[in-house]
């Protein structure tokens, strides 16, 4: 069975428990309040043949770029969120993209999955889970 192609532009429509997630990452109170007001968009380029992916999260505050190959560990700069670096691997778990981040925080990572034109993002750190939902631009 072919894996889904995540290529597209997605706009956030909802989020749940995001401030608690940021607090688990030790993001300061003022920055948490600002970040929770943002409505990010995701611009995803996904080459299904090579496994190369680029995920750009765009906000009015700051943008965040990830450029990686599925299944290969890379060093991720988490500066826009919490100023840390971590070792990151993103790979398939069924039809979902599973990210594992190794660094200062335990159980840190995320899962992306598609349901039609809806992109789901579940974020995890220190036993806290947050969820964001995005709709694909037409």
From TrEMBL:
GO terms for molecular function: lipid binding. Residues 8-25 form the Cytosolic fatty-acid binding proteins domain. InterPro entries: Calycin (IPR012674), Fatty_acid-bd (IPR000463), ILBP (IPR031259), Lipocln_cytosolic_FA-bd_dom (IPR000566). Keywords: Transport. Belongs to the calycin superfamily. Fatty-acid binding protein (FABP) family. This is Cellular retinol-binding protein type 1. It comes from Triplophysa rosa. The lineage of its organism: Eukaryota, Metazoa, Chordata, Craniata, Vertebrata.
């Amino acid at each position: 069975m072919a894996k889904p192609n995540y290529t597209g532009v997605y706009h956030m429509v909802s989020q749940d428990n995001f401030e608690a997630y940021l607090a688990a990452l030790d993001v300061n109170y003022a920055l948490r309040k600002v970040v929770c007001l943002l409505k990010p968009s995701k611009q995803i380029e996904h080459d299904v043949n090579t496994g190369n992916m680029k995920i750009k999260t765009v906000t009015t505050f700051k943008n965040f770029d990830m450029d990686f190959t599925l299944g290969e560990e890379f060093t991720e700069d988490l500066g826009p969120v919490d100023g840390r670096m971590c070792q990151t691997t993103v790979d398939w778990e069924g039809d979902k993209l599973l990210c594992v981040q190794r660094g200062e925080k335990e159980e840190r990572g995320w899962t992306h999955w598609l349901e039609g034109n809806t992109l789901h993002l579940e974020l995890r750190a220190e036993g806290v889970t947050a969820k964001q939902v995005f709709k694909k631009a037409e």
